[in-house]
Amino acid sequence: MRHGKKFNHLGRTASHRKAMLSNMASSLILHKRISTTLAKAKELRKYVEPLISRAKEDTTHNRRIVFSYLQSKDSIKTLFGEVVEKVATRPGGYTRIIKTGNRLGDNAEMCIIELVDFNELMLKDAKPAKKTTRRSRRGSGSAATETVAKTGESATEDEKKDDNAAE
Hints:
Elements: H1 14-31, E1 33-37, H2 38-55, H3 60-70, H4 73-87, E2 95-102, E3 109-115, H5 120-126, H6 142-151, H7 155-166
């Protein structure tokens, strides 16, 4: 039975697990994206997100605490510098896990874990497209008179342009 077992031990001793998560967290902070197994990624998320939250307040105490977890000066500089600039307004959820399929050798579930604000492709998709106003076909009411007042053209000419652009 698994009474009181709150986290995945990943089949490793405590010291090995601590060293592995520390190295993975440093790699994630330096490279912004790493590929690993799903189980390790889920544990890494629990390990690294509190460190990023702590890094939002740049004090000597917080730097020392984060250094005790990461043991890498380069990753500390990157975390307290460029990573915190991007995540300063975000209230949490700094990482994203994307499943990539199964590994050939042992069929383990593989994934990519990345820092959310550093994926340019996802950021482009998240930005809303330029919103256009929808006009009715009848041209009655305030929408038609506003377009006439602004542009000096009739509403039917605007509708023809919209129809041609849609085709």
